[in-house]
Structure prediction request, 145 residues.
Amino acid sequence: MTKYMLLNGPNLNLLGTREPEIYGSETLQDIETNLLAIAKELNFDLICHQSNAEHELVDLIHSARDEEVKCIIINPGALTHSSIALRDALSGVGIPFIEVHISNIYAREDFRQVSYLSDIAQGVISGLGIEGYELALKTAFKKFK
Ligand code: CA2
Prediction:
């Protein structure tokens, strides 16, 4: 069965608990439940992980190659703006990935307007709220089988 991976980075486990004006009121569990329901309906596998640790995200990206994941949907959190390690991991495994941000990073602080990943991503979705994850997953299913 075709397999995809959803990765969420640092602090995204806090979704729904604080800053609802920026990130909405739904939890990461709500997001994952919704995406897993889509996976069931469309008959594909979805592996979901969140980690606050950069090295764990790197290891998960490496594991995606062993698992023959066809596309990674990743919200790298604040690591977007700093992590050469995540960039190297994603380019190293050579699996297409879609970068998702709940907020519009281009309408926020200057430091959030720099992504170390966007130029090697298949696409970037930023500012569409949690709908962005669904859009990314459905696009992955259409494009990468
Ligand atoms: O907009 C996004 O999805 C971000 O990737 C979220 C990151 C932020 O550092 C990026 O610049 C943009 C932060 C995630 C933190 O999420 C929280 C949720 C609720 C309460 C506190 C933090």
About this structure: Residues 11-12, 14-15, 17-19, 23, 75, 77-78, 80, 101-103, 105, 112 surround CA2 (CB under 6 Å). The longest strand covers residues 3-8. Helices lie at 20-23, 28-42, 54-66, 84-93, 131-143.
